[in-house]
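Fig. S4 source data, part A: sequence.
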Amino acid sequence: MVDRSRPGHYNATLLEKRDLSERYFLMILSRPPDLADPGPGSFIHLLVPGEKRFFLRRPFSVLDCDESTLTLIIVEKGAGTRIMRRLPVGENLDFIGPLGSSFPELPGKRVLAVGGGVGLAPLYYYHRLMSATRDTDLYRLLYGARTRTDLFIGNFDWSIENVDFSTDDGTYGFSGNVVQLAEREIERSQVDVIFSCGPTPMLKSVAALARTKRITHHVSLENRMACGMGACRSCVVPVRIDSTACHRTVCKDGPVFNADDLVWEELPEI
């Protein structure tokens, strides 16, 4: 777990940029030497460089991190991410982080991770961290996309074990959505805990599945943010703690939550 109370303010160099598909791309940054180790689920808050009209930072979950680099997966959704996709290698980038909570370490538990879109980042990173310390047979990653090209086959390191794919159009792997694939996997083998990250409709379906199967579920939300530190409260979500309704900020109290605490029917569609 990172220390969220003392995030750092850093500058990093864009070392590599790689298109993964029509919409998705990777950015590999130099890692500042004093950056705290990010956890799987924590994020950095990145400033769009050279554009004063983009005064709000953009949050991006960490896909991978080692001693010298920090890797992000980004989907082009608007003007800000379009500018970032066109940045030249060598560009100086300003960010704050690491911020937010992480998926919990669960020694001995069989974890089924369900991801879609950029929700791949914390789930993939969790597996990378596990592979250095524990038996990865306890962790299974399911990743779904609309079609084969958004699975990044051939552009990504899928040498990790226990990974299955689904495509809505049946062009690769399981034919159907990733939640249907998750249901099949639960029927086939024991699952103690579910992790999920991706679009809100997918997360709601995973939450419903987890409740039906009575499986503990931890979810990472992808809400829009402004300050990234819980001050502006632009990213609040409704929760219910011990039968008491209240609100929590995704940036500071999350982005990882126990799914049972969220009021799913009131969550905004992201």
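Fig. S4 source data, part B ends here. The helical segments are 79-85, 120-133, 178-188, 200-213.
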